[in-house]
Amino acid sequence: MARRYDTRTTIFSPEGRLYQVEYAMEAIGHAGTCLGILANDGIVLAAERRNTNKLLDEMFHSEKIYKLNDDMACSVAGLTSDANLLTNELRLIGQRYKYTYGESIPCEQLVSWLCDIKQAYTQSGGKRPFGVSILYIGWDKHYGFQLYQSDPSGNYSGWKATCVGNNWNAAVSMLKQEYKEGETSLSNALDLSIKVLSKTLDMTKLSPEKIEISTLTRENNQTKIEILSAEKVDELIKKYEKAEAEAEAAKKEKEKQQQQPKP
């Protein structure tokens, strides 16, 4: 049945579905994982890097995390070429607002305006939906630290912690169990991001070359967006591996004690 109604983005199926939009969202499910975690004193954005060729020039190559303005950054899952176009549009919207009003654009307003553009591409003939889902992190004077997610349909929503891309179901399930609202510091959020990525990524061992991590914090009334260096990411991975090894050793010791016959 789907084949009769999936050649145009403007045609509804008898069940009321737009198959091309659903296909775009399905494509994102196979893209590199991105996750965001809201903390009391900042936000963490972590992403899987699929293209880890040693010959790539890091100076000109940013695969997953983009700075949008002084107060916002985003991470993308899906087609990088589509993402480049959308991130440029986000920067333009932000700069126009700042030129007009003399201050940074509120986070939700920027997300909403871009989602209007994404929605228009699902309603016009001869166009296709953007094959990219975006996680936005930012700070504004109205609501403080904020985390948003948008998808190809033009929908967006605010989150405390979420994930898009490959194995997002497992990651979101893990975040539901591990995330503690109101009790999570930036340090806890960094540790949690490493833990979730290590459990959900399709690789045997995490390495700094395969993940990007960014933090957004406030210092001296200014927003600071920092992409962590490979050394810092390596430290976080080693810290997690050490904690896991200690937990495993304690578990084995407990099982050993339970198996010993009682006198």
In short:
With 263 residues, the chain is α+β, with helices and mostly antiparallel strands. The chain has helices spanning 19-28, 80-101, 107-120, 168-178, 186-200, 230-259; strands at 34-39, 42-48, 65-69, 72-78, 132-140, 144-150, 156-158, 161-164, 211-219, 222-227. 39% of the residues lie in helices and 24% in strands.
Description:
The protein has helices at about 20-30, 80-100, 105-120, 170-180, 185-200, 230-260, and strands at about 35-40, 40-50, 65-70, 70-80, 130-140, 145-150, 155-160, 160-165, 210-220, 220-225. With about 260 residues, the protein is an alpha+beta fold. Strands 8-1-2-9-10 form a five-stranded antiparallel sheet. The protein has a five-stranded antiparallel sheet with strand order 3-4-5-6-7. The radius of gyration is 21 Å and the shape is globular. The model has no long low-confidence stretch (mean pLDDT about 90).
Topology readout:
Layout lengths: L18 H10 L5 E6 L2 E7 L16 E5 L2 E7 L1 H22 L5 H14 L11 E9 L3 E7 L5 E3 L2 E4 L3 H11 L7 H15 L10 E9 L2 E6 L2 H30 L4
Antiparallel strand pairs: 1-2, 1-8, 2-9, 3-4, 4-5, 5-6, 6-7, 9-10
Helix pairs in contact: 2-3, 4-5, 5-6
Key structural traits:
single chain, 263 residues, alpha+beta, 5-stranded antiparallel β-sheet, 6 helices
Biggest pleated-sheet summary: 5 strands, antiparallel
Mean pLDDT: 88
> Could you tell me the radius of gyration in angstroms?
21 Å
The separation of the N and C termini measures: 70 Å
Structural class: alpha+beta
Shape: globular
Strand content: 15-25%
